[in-house]
């Protein structure tokens, strides 16, 4: 429902109707819209984590030995709206920003989510620096902030203009960006 | 009100109260919330255009002769939330994305806004390519899409974590990004 109607269109009554439950039953578990929204974002977080977990033992072994720029590239590709599921998930995240910037609790939860994501990316960037794939003269945290900025902004543009940002162009732009990250020295 | 309460918190009644007017008078001009929101975004567009207009004849002459990468850099700096006004304006834009991704009319208006912005940036990129400041082997439209992606994503991160993205870090990250754009070849 969030993907289709946005946060502005979400009501406890509509969710209860969709579930075939009474509003009273729903509010027993989620006393207000904010609680429901926080739960929806947690579910989305867990789904994303599950999607990124290797499906087989062989894939686990491969993931354990993979290093550097290709791993960073895969992590950024995972974020982009390259298919319908990716577009729906991203549409919910982008839609959550209005409420998240208004509600101090949600603001901090979101800020912490993005902080964690930047820390994970900074580890991948540091690894790529060790391998000589990214310039060593800039803090890995800055490289991570550059990567997260680029990726989030591409998500927004692709959601508004999917015809101009088909999957292959998103991938090509990501590769352009990473080439710049690898080459760029101030 | 949009900057403080977000789109989710905006009601015609609250706006009327803020104006000291009746809801009836307000709905005479804006029959529904969507019309009010569209008007607010147009006002924001015009304010941004006014801010970028050179204030003096000397500034006009200077702007007319300025070219290439410094002009692109200035255009991107103009977008970033480097002060309170920039943060409030950006907070409204980011907040508008939830409604804009739900309402087909608003989606198209937003898509067209970003398309226009990319076209303007592509002209600046093409100029920088002519001057040899940006690599000539990539379409200016791609360089513009990279620049807009990076800038929009940095806006979002800076809104959620202003302490981690003070103005001087935003500027430094933009310069890192532009250095990569200038250096990057696939």
From TrEMBL, chains A, B:
Keywords noted in UniProt: DNA-binding, Repressor, Transcription, Transcription regulation
Gene3D superfamilies to which the protein is assigned, alphabetical: Tetracycline Repressor, domain 2
Keyword Transcription listed: yes
PROSITE patterns in the cross-refs: HTH_TETR_2 (PS50977)
InterPro entries: BetI_C, Homeodomain-like_sf, HTH-type_TetR-like_transc_reg, HTH_TetR, Tet_transcr_reg_TetR-rel_C_sf
SUPFAM superfamilies on file: Homeodomain-like, Tetracyclin repressor-like, C-terminal domain
GO molecular function terms noted in the UniProt entry: DNA-binding transcription factor activity; transcription cis-regulatory region binding
Protein name: TetR family transcriptional regulator
Organism from which the protein derives: Kitasatospora cheerisanensis KCTC 2395
């Amino acid at each position: 429902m969030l993907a289709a109607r946005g946060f502005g269109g979400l009501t406890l009554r509509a969710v209860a109707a969709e579930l075939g439950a009474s509003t009273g039953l729903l509010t027993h578990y989620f006393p207000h819209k904010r609680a429901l929204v926080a739960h929806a974002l947690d579910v989305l977080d867990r789904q994303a984590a599950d999607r990124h977990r290797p499906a087989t033992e062989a894939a686990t072994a491969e993931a354990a030995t993979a290093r550097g720029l290709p791993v960073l590239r895969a992590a950024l590709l995972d974020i982009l709206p390259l298919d319908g599921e990716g577009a729906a998930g991203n549409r919910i995240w982008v839609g959550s920003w209005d409420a998240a910037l208004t509600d101090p609790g949600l603001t901090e939860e979101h800020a912490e989510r993005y902080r964690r994501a930047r820390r994970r990316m900074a580890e991948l960037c540091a690894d790529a620096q060790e391998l000589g794939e990214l310039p060593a003269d800039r803090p890995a945290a800055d490289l991570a902030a550059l990567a997260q900025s680029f990726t989030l902004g591409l998500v927004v543009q692709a959601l508004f203009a999917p015809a101009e940002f088909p999957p292959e162009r998103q991938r090509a732009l990501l590769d352009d960006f990473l080439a710049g990250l690898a080459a760029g020295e101030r």
